[in-house]
Amino acid sequence: MIKNLQNIQPISFSKLIHAKHIAIPSEHGAWIFLFSPLLIGLAIGGLSKGSFPLMLAMLSAFLIRQPVTMFVKIISGRRPKNDLYASLIWFLNYGVVLLISLVILILQKSIFILFLAVPAIPVFIWHLWLVSKRAERRQIWIEIAASGVLALAAPAAYWVGLQRYDSIGWLLWGLSWLQVAGTILYAYLRLNQRQLKEKPTLRELIKMSRDSFLFNTALFAGVLILAFAGWVPTFLPLAFLIQPLEVIWGTYHPAISVAPKKIGIRQLIISSLFTIVFIITWLLV
Q1: pTM, whole model, 2 decimals?
Q2: For a tag on the chain, would you pick the N or C end, based on fewer CB atoms within 10 A?
Q3: C-alpha pair distances (Å), 23 with each of 18, 28, 33, 85, 245
């Protein structure tokens, strides 16, 4: 490690501040994994004096992983050593905001929210270990696990809004996590379709989309059962119908040679639509 950090050349302050590749997560699609559950929790639980510091805490915790990840890449020899200063600066920036936000939440007697951060620790360590081994790309299980951690924003925002614990928060977490897991499966389907040289037969396309279709359809069916049982709002299944319909569309329109950015933008729209419909149908009760 010491050898890797020798002979670091100083860089200007302006370059430190504008080092976007260190300050902003490179996985642009991950933003919706945070904001969808967070917005759901805020909308359903309502706003309180703790909502703003909670949002700052969630956002800074989400962002701080980027400079930490870059630091691991630097000491692993994957990034230039001159990125070290920028990594440390952004780590400190996000760390200070996170610490202040948590102190405010504790002073407002929302200390129970801190326990939701516990699952993030092993998942983050797992991610950093993969980064150190140059094996973090296309790891579906770590992405699903990480999305489960981010989905904890839903119960956190819900409980802070209510200013008390309520078991409904866990239901919001489970529904948010399963929805994101479904989108991850679909994203992998689309990325696999990109590698096709020509459009295969319909049977082959259906076979490729089987896992994504079955998961998202089963999730829709499960929420439908919950609605019939009266455990969730009557029209909530409409939100969970969006992704299965998208999977069907994606099956008949394979993403052959489609740019990953275009795939990501479309999924961002679908996930945003899900979030809006989820909130509206829940509040119709």
Answers
A1: 0.88
A2: N
A3: 8, 13, 18, 12, 36
d(CA 35, CA 37): 6
User: Residue 100's CB: how many other CB atoms inside 10 A?
Assistant: 14
Residue 68 has which token pair?
């930490």
Residue type at 272?
S
Tell me if 279 sits within 8 A of 44, measured CB to CB: yes
Residue with more model confidence, 73 or 238:
238
What radius of gyration, in Å, describes the C-alpha atoms of the chain?
21
* Buried/exposed 258-277: b ≥16 CB within 10 Å, e otherwise: eeeeebbebbeebbeebbeb
For the segment 130-171, what is each residue's pLDDT rounded down to a tens digit? 888 887 777 888 899 999 999 999 999 999 999 898 999 999
Question: Rounded to an integer, what distance in angstroms lies between the CA atom of residue 214 and that of residue 267?
Answer: 18
DSSP annotation string for 210-253: HHHHHHHHHHHHHHHHHHHTTSS-TTTHHHHHHHHHHHHHHHHS
Q: How far apart are the first and last CA of the chain?
A: 57
Tokens of 111: 């200390």
Q: Among 68, 12, 1, 63, which Cα is nearest to 34's?
A: 63
- The domain limits of the chain are 1-166, 167-285
- Do residues 136 and 127 lie in contact, with contact meaning Cβ atoms separated by under 8 Å? yes
Residue 152, amino acid: L
Which are the contacts of 198, defined by CB distance < 8 A and separation ≥ 6?
256
* Span 65-86, average pLDDT: 84
The pLDDT-based confidence of 2 (bands split at 50, 70, 90) is very low
152, 105 contact by CB (below 8 A): no
